[in-house]
Write a structure and sequence with these properties.
Largest sheet: 6 strands, mixed
Shape: globular
Structural class: alpha/beta
Radius of gyration: 31 Å
Strand order of the largest sheet: 4-3-2-5-6-7
Helix content: 40-55%
């Protein structure tokens, strides 16, 4: 009986519906020959095919070009189907263009693939990253570097940024063509795009530094002070001034220890921050959004106050600390927890007090409590406490102060709610990693979780060495493999320059006394590792 119903249902189906269902089955089974048979039958029976039907056929054809036994058939019918779409006056959408671009690239015609993308605007279609890939990879494989760079430029003008696969292809063609300025550029684009590179990308990087061309390029006359200033301005971990020095590179694979020191060369890695321009834009964005949602005069007053009190090394989200683990019957605002955080930061920071941001409503409640009044008044006298106005959201205040003063923020707030989504910043996560200090209380004792000692990202040092983290199976940083890439001759020269500079500063005896850095030190005062602070 079921069979009879199925047969009746099929009889009632239109040819178009039946074609679509059978085509979906071919697509599911990756059956190109079956799909082509369906297509030929549909054409001979003058079945009305729509855009979705054609796109399904093109998708099958474009996915079959990697099979040598099907490639010719896929190319023949793929372009035939595309010609039919054009003759019917159907405007190709992104899926259509991507499939045909893949077909064009498969036969080595990157120009046709790229031409399709450039013409998409005429059909009101918007490209995606995958739409550019066929032309980009085709040009890279054929070592047509300038055309590949043009694809990337067009991609960025359309508001898209290449990811690791695209950047790796561009890096590889630059390496193979000996384009040292482009190699440098794409290494930095990788640095800003991915945290750890894949093994295949690591191999491309190794090939460059082990090659003859890499040993021949670099600036011979470089100013150490300018390089160091650039590293500081960029937030640490890179200078972007170009290749430094000349001579062979030494490429090794090794580990980085828990203090951030490379076990291969001994260099200290940075905990990388956002750069100065990004920091200023970030602060302006926070202020702009805050003044849209807060009483403008109140927040402007706070901005002026911050400018006049710019010596704080750490900001504390007072409500977050005071209410931590207080969700029990007699729980409330824990002044003792907040006091513990204040004192710990004071002792770590060379006897300098942090700034606690607290809503005025909570401040009044604490002052009205006789057991807390003296401590709170002491905080006020020492400039530890800033109370935000009634009706305000104190999140804006502690966030702005932290960004503007480039210091640490003590809070367990994950900063995932709508306020932080409004910022929409691509560098927000990097900023959080560098500035947020989380905490816990173990049997009543405070434990601060400081920012990581170093960042697992591509790093370029003042003396031109490179450290590249490689993605692996282990999630443990201690197990991560790093490429350590050094130029011994440049490193020796750099060390001599630094030593001569220290000697002149100390009357020529060459001996210096290392000064201690505070744990909560601002970025501009920090060395490459927060463990030294």
């Amino acid at each position: 009986m079921g069979t009879a119903k199925t047969t009746k249902k099929k009889k009632n189906q239109s040819p178009e519906t039946q074609f679509y269902l059978e085509l979906n089955l071919c697509s599911k089974n990756k059956d190109l020959r079956g799909a082509i048979s369906l297509y030929e039958a549909a054409v001979s029976h003058k079945t009305r095919l729509n855009h979705q039907h054609f796109n399904s056929l093109l998708y099958l054809c474009s996915n079959s070009v990697t099979d040598p036994s099907l490639k010719d058939l896929a190319l023949e019918y793929g372009f035939r189907i595309f010609d039919q779409i054009s003759s019917m006056g159907i405007s190709p959408n992104e899926a259509t263009i991507t499939a045909v671009a893949r077909l064009a690239a498969a036969k080595g015609d990157g120009d046709f693939a790229f031409g399709l993308v450039k013409e998409m605007g005429k059909n009101n279609a918007l490209p995606r990253l995958r739409t550019y890939d066929p032309a980009l990879y085709c040009f890279c494989e054929k070592l047509e570097a300038e055309k590949a760079y043009e694809v990337e430029l067009h991609m960025r003008s359309a508001g898209m940024s290449p990811e690791e696969p695209e950047l790796a292809a561009l890096l590889k063609v630059s390496v193979e063509m000996g384009r040292e300025e482009r190699v440098y550029e794409y290494l930095h684009k990788l640095r800003s795009t991915v945290r750890c590179v894949s093994e295949s990308t690591a191999k491309i990087i190794e090939d460059w530094f082990c090659g003859k061309k890499a040993s021949e390029v670099g600036e011979l006359n470089w100013e150490v002070g300018q390089i160091e200033e650039a590293v500081s301005r960029n937030g640490g971990g890179w200078h972007g001034k170009g290749w430094i020095g000349r001579g062979d590179w030494v490429v090794r694979r090794g580990r980085v220890d828990s203090s951030g020191q490379c076990c291969s060369c001994g260099d200290k890695l940075f905990c990388v921050d956002i750069d100065d321009e990004e920091t200023e834009r970030f602060a302006q964005s926070v202020a702009s959004l805050a003044m849209e949602r807060e009483v403008k005069s109140n927040f402007s007053e706070f901005q002026n106050w911050v400018d006049e009190h710019a010596d704080y090394e750490a900001i504390v989200d007072g409500a977050n600390v005071g209410l931590y683990q207080q969700n029990f019957a007699d729980g409330g605002f824990s002044v003792s927890q907040l006091d513990a955080v204040v004192k710990e930061l004071y002792s770590r920071n060379g006897d300098r007090w942090p700034l606690v941001v607290l809503h005025n409503k909570r401040f009044r409640a604490l002052v009205e409590n006789p057991s807390h009044r003296n401590l709170v008044e002491e905080w006020m006298d020492k400039g530890i406490l800033y109370t935000t106005p009634s009706g305000s959201n104190d999140d804006w205040y502690w966030l702005y102060a932290t960004v503007k003063l480039k210091c640490l923020l003590v809070t367990n707030d994950e900063m995932r709610d709508h306020i932080f989504e409004l910022l929409g910043s691509s560098f927000f996560l990097k900023w959080k990693e560098r500035h947020q200090v989380k905490y816990t209380f173990v049997k009543g004792s405070l434990v601060l979780q400081m920012p990581p000692v170093y960042s697992s990202v591509i790093q370029e040092s003042e003396k031109g060495t490179w450290h590249v983290p490689v993605a692996g199976d282990s999630s443990e940083e201690s197990e991560r493999t790093w490429l350590c890439i050094t130029r011994p001759r440049v490193g020796k020269t750099f060390d001599e320059i630094l030593q001569n500079g220290k000697a002149s500063q100390n009357g020529g005896d060459g001996n210096t006394q290392e000064t201690c850095k505070s744990v909560a030190g601002k970025r501009k005062e920090r060395s490459s590792s927060t463990s030294e602070l």
